[in-house]
Design goal:
It is a single chain. The chain is α+β, with helices and mostly antiparallel strands. It is built from seven helices and four strands; from the N terminus they run βααβααβααβα. A four-stranded antiparallel sheet has the order 2-3-1-4. The relative contact order is 0.26. The protein binds inosine-5'-diphosphate and magnesium ion (MG). Inosine-5'-diphosphate (IDP) binds next to helix 4.
């Protein structure tokens, strides 16, 4: 059993597809063990994506992640980290495999519908960035 962090990004929240994206997780054996909808401020978005702070797209990424509400979730299941990344598809929706969340709901590499932790270690850090232990059931 693993846990991973998922974020439904502002583009997908604006498109009203929160439920459709959550259905992908639930239909594929991942359980929502924590969930909240919130608006990130620039400091939090920058801290969350600190690993990318030297990249040319960092400012655009912070602008985008603070442009509207996001839904932050903890997903639990067997191989949850890898399974979530498979369900998400490639970072660039044009390269994402048909049937993946990004192929079906994302427009561009910036506005790409979802975030998912890329390793078990990062998942642990990202989960504790957003949730207290008592909020995960
Ligand atoms: P991931 O979300 O698939 O893990 P990362 O490489 O970790 O992809 O990048 C984090 C986020 O930064 C991406 O989801 C995307 O929103 C944005 N991003 C990544 N590469 C680019 C780029 O080349 N141009 C614009 N935005 C990018
Ligand atoms: Mg990443």
């Amino acid at each position: 059993m693993e846990r991973t962090l998922s974020i439904i990004k502002p583009d997908a929240v604006k498109k009203n597809v929160i439920g459709k994206i959550i259905d992908r997780f639930e239909s594929n054996g991942l359980k929502i063990v924590a969930i909240k909808k919130l608006l990130l401020d620039r400091a939090s978005a920058g801290e969350f994506y600190a690993i990318h702070k030297e990249r040319p797209f960092f400012k655009d990424l912070v602008d985008f992640m603070t442009s509207g509400a996001v839904v932050v979730m903890v997903l639990e299941g067997e191989n949850a980290v890898k399974k979530n990344r498979e369900l998400m598809g490639d970072t660039d929706p044009k390269k994402a495999q048909a049937g993946t969340i990004r192929a079906d709901f994302a427009e561009s590499i910036d506005a790409n519908a979802v975030h998912g932790s890329d390793s078990l270690e990062n998942a642990k850090n990202e989960i504790s960035f957003f949730f207290a232990q008592t909020e995960i059931k």
